Amino acid sequence: MENKFLPVTRAEMEERGWDQVDFVYISGDAYVDHPSFGHAIITRLLEAHGYRVGMISQPDWKDKESITVFGEPRLAFLVSAGNMDSMVNHYSVSKKRRSKDSYTPGGVMGKRPDYACVVYGNLIRQTYKKTPVILGGIEASLRRLAHYDYWSDHLKRSVLLDSGADLISYGMGERSIVEIADALQSGIRVEDLTYLDGTVCKVRDREMVYDGVELPAFTELQKDKLSYAKSFYTQYCNTDPFTAKRLIEPYSDHLFVVQNPPAKPLSQTEMDDVYALPYMRTYHPMYEKDGGIPAISEVKFSLISNRGCFGACSFCALTFHQGRIIQTRSHESLIEEAKKLTEEPDFKGYIHDVGGPTANFRHPACEKQLTHGACKHRQCLFPKPCGNLKVDHRDYLKLLRSLRELPKVKKVFIRSGIRFDYVMADRDDTFLRELCQYHVSGQLKVAPEHIADPVLQMMGKPENAVYRAFTKKYERINEQIGKKQYLVPYLMSSHPGSTLKEAVALAEYLRDLGYMPEQVQDFYPTPSTISTCMYYTGVDPRTMKPVYVPKSPHEKAMQRALIQYRNPKNYELVMEALRKTGREDLIGFGKHCLIRPRQTKEDRYFAKKRQQGKGSALPKKKKTIRNTHKKKKH
What we know:
Elements: H1 10-15, E1 23-27, E2 32-33, H2 38-48, E3 53-57, E4 76-80, H3 86-90, H4 116-127, E5 133-136, H5 137-142, E6 147-149, E7 154-156, H6 159-163, E8 167-169, H7 174-185, E9 199-203, E10 212-214, H8 218-223, H9 225-236, E11 246-252, E12 255-259, H10 268-275, E13 282-283, H11 296-299, E14 302-304, E15 306-307, H12 318-321, E16 327-328, H13 331-342, E17 350-351, E18 353-355, H14 369-372, H15 394-404, E19 411-412, H16 420-425, H17 430-438, E20 443-449, H18 453-459, H19 464-480, E21 486-493, H20 500-513, E22 521-522, H21 530-537, E23 539-540, E24 545-546, H22 553-563, H23 571-580, H24 601-612, H25 620-633
Parallel strand pairs: 1-3, 1-4, 4-5, 5-8, 10-11, 14-18, 17-19, 20-21, 21-22
Antiparallel strand pairs: 2-13, 6-7, 8-9, 9-12, 11-12, 15-16, 23-24
Helix pairs in contact: 2-7, 9-21, 20-22, 22-23
């Protein structure tokens, strides 16, 4: 293996003495050879197994010649929309076009198409009719079966069908991509690869799949939202690599999409090997003239210590993509990478993050998960921590202490999410104390998401009392160590289950807190989450009970405005929301009020005087007129 970027042109391929590549990798992102980018991991892994890989980043989807740079690959095209779903990358929750794409040179928007996997797949098929096409990455992973698409407001088929691809490598694809490559190398036809864990395939004959659970047919899902809710929950209960069944989704009598069980989690040694591959750890130099790739700044001096999350929030797709079983790298692997970071010429002494989806998860939730899998119908932390949950921060603490002691390291920050309910479940406060002492710089970001328990229940988050207890403990510890540090809560508006009543309660909480968030995340229905299923069907798929869903743009705007009720631009929306909920008591001049009634300057002046108990209740001019009238009468 040569320590340089993979070829991006035919000339670079020929410089290596190759007349053909085994795989052409097409990505919706610019080419960044860093392990925070999925395309870097997959291509380096294939290279480590002896395969020749050429890289085509952000091809011009309007020109079919853009994917012929290397000619036809010997084994297959690999296609990914990039590190984000292309629709999330392009559009805000209000469906307005974003102005910046951090995964594109110079942050320029518009270098990838909407529904990139589908467009790239069909672009390949225009020229290469029979060459295998394998989809991967988060867009394909979360659209692997029938799914609700928020941007078109329709139920869509599996992306496998609409893209013309042959297979999907879903989830974290290290195991499945090597198995696919080895099978193709051995001469097995792609249409016969129907059995690999971590893949989705299509078959023409139902008899080819002998041990699967059959989901409702796509035509039935289109007709009945409740059928979709049931189908989705079946999928949700089959995301564990140890217990999942093979799922079969019929599209006709002669077309079935088959989801094989997820690939097994990587061992610590396997994780270490993946992150030890010879990454260049930056973007390709061809982007320098355009200003580089903005996304690298967020990860260049960060360490990925784990993957997976047993938090299982309803609005998060991690259960479907990385799974609930925690996989970790060894201390040795992370320290070795940290040493490399300190040798970078622009390293300033700060490691920006040590974490993953949830930073303080460093081992499986309980002992049985690595042999029996995660529980199908029970959560590890919700609604209360499971009695079998292993709560222990000692390994993470040991890692952080080792990183702090490295030469040239001034500070180690933690920017990944800290699961505060897991912290509260730990009877030993050592982790929280050291977090405040060494790993926070003035503010700690946490994600309570809401404060109303009915909404938190729909979100799969702990009740508000847990967050309140955490805030008190955080304040107490900071006081003990002599630091003034604050919590910055992430909050979400318009999640299923949130009425205007709960939105007002959240505004009151913020009033009492004296905090006004600069940004508010409106609930974004992305593919393959329980919350998105609620949004589309109006029921909680776990219970099949109806759920209130705020859908109208106007109501969503009111809920969002209530969180930022001090912003003058939100005045009319807040006023309307308070009147609709019968909470006019929050309109006035008292300390508990959110907004004041609209008045003239003179009205406001005398109202203030009345409140202070000074002066007359009448304006001076009116008082003079009345006194004059009395004099004339006498």
